[in-house]
Design a protein that fits this description.
With 454 residues, the protein is of the alpha+beta class. The protein contains 14 helices and 13 strands. It has three domains: 132 residues, no CATH class; 164 residues, Transferase(Phosphotransferase), domain 1; 56 residues, no CATH class.
Length: 454
């Protein structure tokens, strides 16, 4: 299991240089493998489409497996990027999402000595002076830290203690710069590569907050109180005051399981109710409180058992984004525009949120973006509307394929007509060497230049 691999914080200059170099070499290897298959596909375009699909899937799986091994070895923000890939539904090849799923809750762990050093440095006391029955085997390990079960010595309360990995802040800063560079190169080298640099800039902002557990405690407390105030049946762990610091976060312990472990739900659980409460929670926090949970992958959504009933729990509030009331309003308009496919409102909301929309976007890319946004919200639609959406997407896909085929045929026809009207003439040799004179005559430029005798 990946959870048995020990965390090693190699943050010296040479270790970081080796880390960056290895990441860049891996990215170059992936780039070359993709380019190689693209060239093969151009040269062998008559090959069966299913065979090409299989070859692409095999290549994606090989590259994803190599990337996963690299992430497990080097950890840091690379793991966060891998988690983002695993949670991305659409736009990412399925083999990449499958291979990265293990990063949602199985990552290398810090050892007992590192935990003791961190707790003593942050809380000013030894582990045994603050906690009883501290479980050094982590319940889960994540990008920034790992969670342990313990009992608070002062009160006897069962708690969960999140301890930050040593050196993770410096690693994350280096990884972000490296990932940003790779993203910029990918845009230049691959026409279909999306521009994710704005997302990386936001990650850079958020990563500074993520390594400060005091900020996470405040966000978690604020979210929990807001959900309780609005009557939403979703919980956030309550932090324990006096036992939290920048690198140690102590909170109430909640019995339960990851939301994707569907076989652990009690019989006759109303799954629709659970999903509706989660949707209500995120909508309330975003549009009423202006608080966005920035990392809602399945590993951060827990299910609390209460007898035969269950309640969703939102974990890991290290990455958050706060919105002003005006931003909340225009974000709501953007969602409505996406769901109703209202072009005017979509553009208006985008501009109000600070996006600069080019003429090309409004005339060429707008429809694709609106469709993509609607696809993101597909699970919030009724079943009948989902069926209509998928039918619409299939029709659009067939229409685009037909249009692309017509363009290709027209281009080929034009090239054949041009070739027929301009037959190739026999050309003289490009270069005529004269033995009588020390000159070389170029038949193309009809110029002479002195050249030494060979």
């Amino acid at each position: 299991m990946a959870a048995e691999v020990r965390w090693r914080a190699d943050t010296g200059p040479f270790s970081l240089l080796r880390r960056v170099g290895s990441t860049l070499l891996m990215a170059r290897s992936i780039h070359r493998s993709v380019k190689r298959l693209e060239r093969d596909q151009e040269d062998e375009s008559d090959e069966d489409e299913d065979e090409w699909r299989e070859r692409w899937e095999q290549l994606h799986r090989q590259n994803a497996q190599a990337t996963y091994r690299h992430i497990v070895q080097y950890k840091g923000f690379l793991a966060k990027a891998g988690q983002g890939i695993s949670a991305r539904d659409g736009g990412i090849p399925q083999p990449w999402r499958d291979e990265m799923k293990a990063l949602q809750d199985h990552l290398p762990v810090s050892g007992k000595e590192e935990i003791q050093k961190t707790v003593r440095a942050e809380l000013g006391k030894k582990v045994e002076d603050v906690f009883d029955d501290f479980g050094y085997k982590p319940l889960a390990s994540a990008t920034v830290g790992q969670a342990h079960q313990a009992v608070l010595k002062a009160t006897g309360q069962k708690v969960c203690v999140k301890v930050q990995h040593k050196g993770v802040a410096r690693m994350m800063a280096v990884d972000l710069r490296c990932i940003e560079y790779i993203a910029k190169v990918a845009i230049r080298k691959h026409k279909t590569a999306p521009d994710v640099t704005p997302i990386i800039r936001e990650w850079r902002r958020a990563s500074a907050d993520e390594v400060d557990f005091l900020l996470e405690a405040r966000s978690m407390s604020r979210a929990g109180k807001a959900l309780q105030r609005h009557g939403v049946d979703v919980k956030c762990p309550v932090p324990v005051e006096g036992s939290c610091s920048r690198r140690v976060l102590t909170m109430e312990f909640i019995e339960g399981f990851k939301i994707t472990d569907t076989e652990r739900f009690p019989p006759n659980t109303d799954m629709t109710y659970v999903a509706r409460q989660l949707l209500e929670a995120f909508a309330t926090l975003i549009f009423q409180e202006g608080l966005i949970h920035g990392d809602p992958h399945p590993g951060n959504i827990f299910v609390e058992l209460r007898g035969e009933k269950v309640r969703p729990v939102l974990l890991d509030w290290g990455i958050t984004k706060e919105l002003t009331k005006e931003e909340c309003y225009h974000t709501a308009r953007w969602v409505i525009a996406s769901m109703s496919q209202d072009r005017t409102m979509f553009l208006s909301a985008g501009r109000a949120l600070g996006y600069t929309l080019t003429e090309h976007f409004e005339t060429e890319a707008l429809e694709d973006w609106m469709t993509g946004c609607l696809f993101m919200f597909r699970d919030t639609l009724p079943a009948s509307a989902q069926a209509y959406l998928f039918e619409m997407l299939d029709d659009r896909s067939r229409s685009e394929e037909k249009e692309e085929k017509q363009k290709k045929e027209a281009a080929e026809h034009e090239a054949k007509e041009k070739a027929a009207s301009n037959p190739k003439k026999k050309r003289r040799s490009a270069w005529v060497y004269s033995s009588a004179k020390d000159t070389v005559t170029c038949t193309k430029s009809k110029k002479k230049r002195n050249s030494p005798r060979r």
